[in-house]
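Chapter summary example: a protein plus NAP.
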Amino acid sequence: MQKRKLGNSNLQVNPVGLGCMGFSHASGDPVDNKTAVKTLRQAYEMGYDFFDTAEAYTGLFPDGSISYNEELVGQALHNVRDKVVIATKMGVHHNDDLSLRLDSRPQTIRQSVESSLKRLETDYIDLYYQHRIDPNVEPETVAETMNQLMKEGKIRYWGISEATGDYLRRANAVCPVTAIENRYSMMARWHESIFPVCEELNIAYVAFSPMANGFLTGKYTPDTKFEGKQDYRAGMPQYTQEGYDKAKALLELLTGMAEEKQATMGQLSLAWMLCKKPYIVPIPGSRKPERLRENFEAGNIVLTQEEISMIDSRLETMRFEVFGGHSAK
Ligand SMILES: NC(=O)c1ccc[n+]([C@@H]2O[C@H](COP(=O)([O-])OP(=O)(O)OC[C@H]3O[C@@H](n4cnc5c(N)ncnc54)[C@H](OP(=O)(O)O)[C@@H]3O)[C@@H](O)[C@H]2O)c1
């Protein structure tokens, strides 16, 4: 498995990174701390070297206590710190109704970075993302704050999540951006228009929700029940009957190709983006060791450019219902 260099940085990572969010946030009740830390450590031992977390990844245990995702990552990895790349994010806070509060003011970023460093049990963050664009703060202001944090050694590189081309260019002009972290999967391709900007500015594309929140694994049916307010999948359009009906042709395509390639559907959905562009790094999430291994192994699957073009031309004929705000592609 050949490592990938993240944009302009000297960070080298295996092709598939690990999205750690689900241990605390958005996948139902959090995983108990001991199991979560053990599983994250197992992920490291099976080869994962790029871990994605965020200050906003918190969840409530049934007894009302809080799971802090960064703490889990810190506990699992602090004694192999120099062998892993840790990415975390600032600028998003969750209100009680789960709506987002955005705040990327310099003083808030400074408070966030100090808290994240403590929770992660480290004195530097490899890749620090602005989690969402704050409409009240100019990109130049955020970039300048990141520049200062780099000079102080608190962060090594920075990135932007759900970046737009214009914002990215303006921010990059002040302090070079190493990676964007945007939604991307076979069912969510609307950010492909930013690929040329990534290529021109030498910026990595870290793909979040790369299996369309698990949907592309083919392991779920319209009868699957996701329980409770803390499992965001319960409200996602791809998991409705209509969502399934619209994705039927894609699931069939994946089933056929998976058989041909002796791979799983989820692996194929990851291999598709890995083989499409050398600067894409998907960060699928799972809380289960056997699935972590399966996803990681997608980095060994080779699809030819002809196979990718065939998939792309089939995708062009399909319309999906998918979480993320765009239903067309
Ligand atoms: N920057 C952002 O704004 C943003 C937003 C969302 C996510 N993210 C990052 O991206 C990461 C991944 O995104 P995601 O969790 O939304 O979506 P995803 O990786 O597409 O899907 C994860 C879901 O699929 C299930 N799953 C994973 N591997 C599987 C397998 N092999 N077979 C069957 N089911 C499988 C997981 O359940 P189990 O845990 O039960 O296996 C989980 O519910 C997150 O962890 C987070 O770090 C970033």
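Key point: Residues 19-22, 27, 52, 131, 161-162, 181, 208-214, 217, 219, 266, 283-288, 291, 294-295 surround NAP (CB under 6 Å).
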